[in-house]
Amino acid sequence: MKINDQEIRLKTTLRLEDGDHKRCFGPGVAALLEEIQEQQSLRAAAANMGMAYSKAWRIIRTAEEAFGCKLLDSTIGGRHGGGAELTEAAERILTAYRACQAEVNAFAQEKFQSGFAFLQGD
């Protein structure tokens, strides 16, 4: 939206919290899971995102604890190397999160456009 010759945008962020108000899932976790899907490896996903492997594991464990299910099926190194793939639960959580995020963003954009239209003038 152009206001006073300046482009003004609304940015929404959807984060899930547990009962103790600790973040357990949001855009960073979703991006990490998507990168794991692509790379088939937690280590490679973390590296591509510029994240420490230990932090990536911590993020995954926090989400697993909150949801009460495993998010990754991992295999440890060996002759053919290790790897990771999303569990069915993780895929469903990621899909639900992205769908919810899209709906929230669409609703928020609509409210932003109508609520701040008066600033656009003629």
Topology diagram in text:
Elements: E1 2-3, E2 6-7, E3 16-17, E4 23-25, H1 27-39, H2 42-48, H3 53-67, E5 72-75, E6 83-86, H4 88-115
Antiparallel strand pairs: 1-2, 3-4, 5-6
Helix pairs in contact: 1-2, 2-3
What would the keywords be for this entry?
6 strands, 52% helix, alpha+beta, two-stranded antiparallel sheet, 122 residues
Instruction: Quote the distance from N terminus to C terminus.
Output: 13 Å
Q: Number of helical runs?
A: 4
Query: What share of the residues does DSSP label as strand, in percent?
Result: 5-15%
Spell out the helices and strands N to C. Answer: EEEEHHHEEH
Number of strand elements: 6
Q: Largest beta sheet: what is the strand line-up?
A: 1-2
- Gyration radius from CA atoms, angstroms: 19 Å
Shape: elongated
Helix content range: 40-55%
Unreliable segments of 5+ consecutive residues? none
Oligomer: single chain
Secondary-structure-derived class: alpha+beta
Describe this structure in words.
The protein is α+β, with helices and mostly antiparallel strands and 122 residues long. It is built from four helices and six strands; from the N terminus they run ββββαααββα. The strands form three sheets. A two-stranded antiparallel sheet has the order 1-2. Helix 1 crosses helix 2 and helix 2 crosses helix 3. The longest helix has 28 residues. The model has no long low-confidence stretch (mean pLDDT 91).
